Every structure is written in structure tokens, then in C-alpha cells.
């Protein structure tokens, strides 16, 4: 199971992206961002990633000229250099300031570019300041009793991969020392977490280190009914939320098990059911890889990069910003001959070595970057995998033409 939670992006959002990057930006002689706050800084970073050079930032007056890092001019100075149809100004401020600012910018007409709420949120999620980090801990790489077509972490291709408990303890301690104050959520995931013989110890150890952090666990629930009572009691003591993704498969003793979890955990486990197993139309939302290079700017709509939070996956002494670190390893073990040279090359900087990072700022800067492998994620093909079906472990489940 992988941790995910975001609003779906529509085709119209991609059309707007194309218009922006293929028509508006190439035809502009000057590009300015209005504002100098969080949204403007994040959008500035995003444009840099997309190889778009901006001229600088515009603020309403001298009082707001608070940055020495960017080329910042006042609205008065901007007006003096503005050329109709050739200068574009992006409105990179929170919409709550629109009523105050917009009347001053009406002279720009079509040269003023708005960013809608979803765009702004996506820019902040990918390139915004890193403040509250979610740590994803994949304890086990495989599942029992269920294999999903195109599984995000390629679990159907694994039979034995697990996070060694002693390595995990060392890694979590190092991470706590590095950026513990910014960690606000730890999510345990798999494959199936209940296949790791020490899963409960993983949670207990983390609870000792992080007494006040929110804990969750993503699970397919297939093994719920095989757990001893003590498992629910101990997990209950750790105050963990179980995010249970129901699949259209047979769950044994489902109602009695849910009742038991609630009773034995003394209501300290919040059981959230995501998806309806009885609904045969359950969708599998996946991003497959492609060997054709993708448009850089599509990265804005990658649903897995930090996922609306600031997520880091921690596994075997490494940190990564999305599932690719785990998925590529399993694909490589199973289908290496299928990789192109360029694709293989792009997988080299997919993660950071946890023990080589001593400055949290370096980590945060890295979390705001687009990786080489993002060139090969077919974000626009994400819908083509359609309804949930079982996996045949065929390579085409993870790659599209
Ligand atoms: S195979 Fe299915 S249940 Fe298992 S990790 Fe993948 S998506 Fe989750
Ligand atoms: S490799 Fe890049 S585009 Fe693909 S899921 Fe990860 S962050 Fe998103």
C-alpha cells in the first residue's frame, strides 16, 4: 500500500499547462511574478525546474520590497518598463489579497496570468517551503492473498523484501537527529505490514522516539483476521490510525474482525476505510513509466511527489520523495533487459543516502527538486490503467508505450 491523498487533476488542467508553457511563456519578452511570499517563491522554483527564466518579482510598494535574494521591483517601476502583449505578470499571491491588489493591475488585461487554487496548492506541495514532514516507512515489500495490477510499489514482483528491524532503528534515530522537529506524521506501509514479523515493534519503537507525532498505517487488511489479540492491544497503545484500503477480494470474517479491533485496541485505533470492496468499479490510479521523455512541466501534477504533504520514504538507509525508489528496484530485479539505457541512467539519483546528510537544509532543498526519472513518468497516461484487476506480473503493467 502506498500513502496517497489528493484531488484528481482533470484534462483541462493539462490543456492549461500546455497553453502556458507552449504559447504564453515562449512569446513573452519578460516574465514577472507578483508577490514575494511563499507562493511566489515556490512558483519561481517550479519555473526554474522547467527551464523558464523570470525577470524577477513585483511588489506593490517599497514597504513590501523585503527580499534581497530576488530581483524585486515596485509596481511603479514595473509600469515604466511594461510592454503590452510582451510582458507577462503572474499573480502569485493568495487569493485573499485579490480584492486589494487586482484594481491596481487591471491595466494589464490579458498580460495578467492567474493561477487557480489547485495549481497554487500543487506548486506549494512540490516547491514550497518544507515544514511538516511525513515519513513513510515501508516495512515489507510484498502482499499475501492480493496482487494488484500495476501496483505502485510493484509488490506483486516481490516475495521476500523486508526492512531489517535493527537497520530501521538506526535509520529512524538518525532521521530524528537530522530533522525530528519537522516530522509531524509517520506512515507505516508495505506491501502488507502484517507480513513483517516485527511490525508491531516497528510502531512501538517509533512511538518511543516520537511520543506526540501522528501515526498511520496503510493496509489492505487481508491479514486482519489472522492477528493475535495482543497485536491490536499493542497497536492501540501506540495510538495509530489504520487506513484500510478495501479491494474487491474476499475478506474472511470481516465484520467480526473490525469489531474485535475496536474492542481490543480500546478505541485507540482509528479505523478508516478507504474505498468500497463491494464496488466492482474500484479504480487503480497508477502512473506508469514510459521510455519517451515527458514534458518537464507535467511534474506539477504528479500525485505522488509529496502527495499534498511533505513526504519522505525511508528505507535501508535511504530517503526518497516518491515510490520510485522501491518500484525501480523491483522492476530492475525482474525486467532489467526491458530498460533503455537512458531510463537506467535516470534511476541513479533517485534517493539520498541518509548517512551522508548532515544539514537538514540540504535535504529540504533536495525535496523541492524534480528528479531525472520524472522524465519517464507518464503522468498524462495515469487513467489508462482503469479498473482494479489482479496483476499477472507482466512488465506492461508498469510501462506504457
Ligand atoms: S499489491 Fe495491492 S494491496 Fe499490495 S501493496 Fe500493491 S496496491 Fe497495495
Ligand atoms: S518519479 Fe517523479 S514524476 Fe514519477 S512519481 Fe516520482 S516524483 Fe512523480
Give an overview of the whole structure.
This protein is of the alpha/beta class. It contains twelve helices and 15 strands. β1 (30-34), α2 and β2 (56-59) form a beta-alpha-beta unit. The longest helix has 15 residues, at 165-179. The protein starts with 10 loop residues before the first helix and ends with a strand. It folds into two domains: 11-126, Rossmann fold; 130-400, Alpha-Beta Barrel (TIM Barrel), CATH 3.20.20.70. α2 (38-49) crosses α5, α6 (165-179) runs parallel beside α7 and α8 (229-237) crosses α9 (254-264). The chain has an eight-stranded mixed beta sheet with strand order 10-9-8-7-6-12-13-14, with helices on one face. A five-stranded parallel beta sheet has the order 3-2-1-4-5. Strands 11-15 form a two-stranded parallel sheet. Bound molecules: iron/sulfur cluster (2 copies). Residues 287, 299, 302, 304-305, 321-322, 324, 371, 373-374, 377 line the site of one iron/sulfur cluster.
Give the biggest sheet.
8 strands, mixed
The structure class reads alpha/beta
Radius of gyration: 23 Å
Shape: globular
Q: Write down the overall mean pLDDT.
A: 90
The count of β-strands is 15
Distance between the termini: 26 Å
User: Cofactors and ligands present?
Assistant: iron/sulfur cluster
The top-level CATH class of the largest domain is Alpha Beta
